[in-house]
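Hi team,

As requested, here is the filled-out complex form for the zinc ion run. I kept the field names the same as last time so the parser does not choke. Let me know if anything looks off before we queue the next batch.

— J.
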Amino acid sequence: MAIARQRQRNSESFKKGRTSQPVSVEWDAKTKLGRMVKGKKITNMHDALKSGLPLREPEIVDSLLPEIDDEVIDVNMVQRMTDSGRRVKFVITVAVGNKDGYVGLGQAKGKEVGSSIRKAIDNAKLNIIEIRRGCGSWECGCRQPHTVPYAIKGKSGSIVIIFKPAPHGIGLATGDVAKKILTLAGIKDCWAFTKGKTKTTVNYAKAVFNALKQNSEMRIMKNEIAKVGIVSGSIGIVKEEIKEEEIKVKEKE
Ligand SMILES: [Zn+2]
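And here is what came back:
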């Protein structure tokens, strides 16, 4: 039933020029995972991440998550005096996400803003993770994946951030940087509690990302999945543990 609905949605969005299906991205695949994605042996992000193969080509993300969006989180100008004069470098921090269960954070350095942003976007894609959503809010209990499934904690530098499930309609009761990253991840409602120097944007962003990473790695019980309505990754893509074995088989072919 869910698959049928997803297929229908895909064909509809395809007509509008947008698609959730993997698109053909032309590139010279150099890694095993890259070749598997290009050869359509792996057709969704979940399988790509669960394959255990290193993700070293941003084009993999481009073809599996064509709707991916990016947002510049921080531009930091670093000046240095040398014998030949003043040297300027930029450190760029970027977040990427498909607004439906996948999010990444990346950084890059360079002399020009434009090319550094592009490099940071690529790095964010290589750091992409699958997050869990659900309705962990006892006040809500709708079992829809609109918030975090349970309280999660992330740290970076002096910053500690805790996200807690919030009921429908609360929105993102967080700082601006967290709002950008959670939006890209596809979380709609959330409470945030922070400690430390939240003005240091980059550490704050890293703490947010680390919290989401913890959320994806935490062990959960099967009964919790049903109770809280936990979804890992994109809504509508059917995922079962058996699939992991399937991928291993495909790999051998
Ligand atoms: Zn709810």
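Two things worth flagging: The beta strands are 69-82, 85-97, 102-110, 129-130, 132-133, 152-156, 159-164, 172-173, 190-195, 231-232. The chain is about 35% helix and 25% strand.

Thanks,
J.
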